[in-house]
Structures are given as structure tokens and as C-alpha cells.
Amino acid sequence: MPALADQADPPLADSYHALLRAGNGIAPAPATESLAVLEQDLPMIDLSRLSSGDAKEREACADAMARAASEWGFFQVTGHGVGRALLEEMRREQARLFRLPFDAKAKAGLLNGSYRWGNPTATSLRQLSWSEAFHVPLASISGEDCDYGKLCSLRGVMQEVANAMSRVADTVAATLAESLGHRPGGPTAFPAGCDGTTCFLRLNRYPACPFAPETYGLVPHTDSDFLTILCQDHVGGLQLMKDSRWVAVKPRADALIVNIGDLFQAWSNNRYKSVEHKVVANSKAERFSVAYFLCPSNDSPVGTCGEPSPYNPFTFGEYRRKVQDDVKRTGKKIGLPNFLKLSTVDGQK
């Protein structure tokens, strides 16, 4: 058996067995909850309609987007301008990156030390994510001190993908904000504090899991940003909560997935929904995805589209710190309920 340093996969099985022993050898209920899972297409939005010369066509597209953000919190977009050839090149670069020995990924400071795997704070199997990722701040992608090792072409591809997804995120965010009465070019920009240095690009890999379907690829969560733009491969595994049931998202080769984050739900006074979602592990095939997170600077106030807001004022930095504290203290994210004016979290009134 090769040494761990020569293996590409992180020691996820070791984590699984350690958590299994800690739980007295009792495996969790299946992550798929197959009897309750529906497979559906998300609402589909053609972004090219926003450039139509017909005002009614543009309005219909914006209305469909706002409705999907309110009813689903997720939707798919076509006509987004991100070329398939570029996304396929990104997939090839991802595969090369994740094929590196685990030791090189975890300890060599690759991509500014942005590598992560599993869940170091997990105390049970229900908190273990069978995945690995590079969660890279956009500010560091083009930085001279960002180490790409021998993957010379990775930097350029990542930068191009980040730029393309940034344009999609800006278009979607501006359209959704305008649907709530925010006017572009007004006294305050939206989203406040977001630029090319504050957002993130995350490269994900979900190795085939011999313990599926008992294991999550990514544990249930909501995103702590304004918007997420996701490109997933053909394998599938993404599920979201809709009407108290899990819905499996059918992969579409020509579509990107957009989901509302916690900050947008707060800014919209709960008009748009940041919904719980997860990735289910696959026993036979590995899965790749790339996600762009539209985030502000840590000192940026999240604000509101109009008063009264159900939330107390908070900055992105305050929100992130509270999420981290909750995970350390309880093992899970609490998120927006912490900031409700009438919050009952931890007995607060």
C-alpha cells in the first residue's frame, strides 16, 4: 500500500471510522433519505433575455428570476455567457490539481494554503463531509505570492472563470435587487462592499465513497454570502430543501446554478430565500464542481432593501464570526436567526 503522502485522496476513511467508533459503532441514517427525495428541474432562466430590445421581455425575465428566488432560493441560468470550452478546461485543471499527492495539497501552501477536506470539527458522522476543496480568495488568484506549484496554466484558467462568473453574479444580483425597488446608480451600491478582492472561488471534489449512502458529500447548510454561482458536472448529488422535502437537482450541461445566500435573504427582508442544501456522496463516481461566492468585505454592513427590517444591523465580519462560534459551540451553523430582532436563540429576546 502506498504511503499517505503518495496518495491523492485525503484520509476521509480514517475520519469516518474514528467517528463511527466514537458513536459506538452506530452508523447514521442514510444521507439520501431516498423515500423522501424528489428529482426535479430547477426553474430555468435565460439571462440573454435581459439584453432584449423588448422591455416586456426584460421585465418577464426579471420577474421569473425574482419569483424563483422567493419560492425556491435556487434556479438555473442559461444564456450566461460563460463558454462551455472554458468550463471544460476548468474541469481538466481541477482534475490535475486534485490528483496531486495529499501531502502536497495539505501542507505545501498550495493556492495560499486554501486546501480543506472533511470537517475537522466533526463530532459525529452526520457532520462529516466526504469531500475536498480549495476555497480561494479572488484577491490571491493573481497575486505573485500565490503558489501554483507546477500547475502553470491553473492561474489563468481560474482567473478567467472567476471573471466570467463574477459578471453572472453581478447581473443576477442587480436584477434581483432592482425587483425589490433598488435603483442602479442610486446613493448606495448593491451589494455594498463587494468587488474583485472580496469574493471567493471554490474548487470542489467529492471522491467516490464506499460508505454511501450513509455519508454526506457536503453536510446540509445554507451559504453565508449574497449569491452563489455553481457549475456542477454530470454526476449529480446536489439536493435542496423545498416544502419540507429534499429535492435532487438534475444536472444540466449548459446551465449554471444560482442560489440565494444568507446575506441576500437578510437584505431582502426575507423576500428571497436562502435554503438548506447538501451534496449526497456517490459510491461509484467522483464529482467535481466550481462555485463563485459573491461576498462583501468583512467590515461591510449588510443593510436592507427597506425598513422595517426583521434583523438587527450586522456586518459580514460579525456574521462570519458568529457562524464560526456556533459551529465550535454546537457543531452546526445557526446563521440568520442569531440576528433577528425578536430572536429566541440562546434565550435572547
TrEMBL record:
Annotated keywords: Dioxygenase, Iron, Metal-binding, Oxidoreductase
Domain Fe2OG dioxygenase: 195-296
Catalytic activity field: gibberellin A1 + 2-oxoglutarate + O2 = gibberellin A8 + succinate + CO2
Cofactor annotation: L-ascorbate
This enzyme's EC code(s): 1.14.11.13
Pfam families xref list: 2OG-FeII_Oxy (PF03171), DIOX_N (PF14226)
Domain of life: Eukaryota
GO biological process: gibberellin metabolic process
Single annotated GO MF: metal ion binding
Name of the top EC class for this enzyme: oxidoreductase
InterPro entries: DIOX_N, IPNS-like_FE2OG_OXY, IPNS-like_sf, Iron_ascorbate_oxido_reductase, Oxoglu/Fe-dep_dioxygenase_dom
Family: Belongs to the iron/ascorbate-dependent oxidoreductase family. GA2OX subfamily.
Protein name (database record): gibberellin 2beta-dioxygenase
Organism: Lolium multiflorum
Source taxonomy: Eukaryota, Viridiplantae, Streptophyta, Embryophyta, Tracheophyta
